[in-house]
Amino acid sequence: MESLPMRVLRNQPGRFEEALARDGTVVLSKDSKPLAIAVDVGESTLEETVRLVTQIRAQLAVGRLRTQARARGLDRLEADEIDAAVRAARAARPE
Q: Looking at the structure, do residues 69 and 24 belong to the same domain, yes or no?
């Protein structure tokens, strides 16, 4: 997998297209930091690829939430504490 600066996409789009065709995936960077991943897709796989990327992003978000919950000690709550928190949140919601 090749990594290219974003400016290559603007200034040398052919180089980007060649790397994408060759490797199927290109990491785009800005200020030497990863910014995006470009994935080669055809018309026939576009919808499936978008669905899979969306699913991966959701899984990453859940992983981050779990890590934050563990850091706050929320993974050690007892069932009655969870029930009380749910009741309090529901009571605080506007009707």
A: no
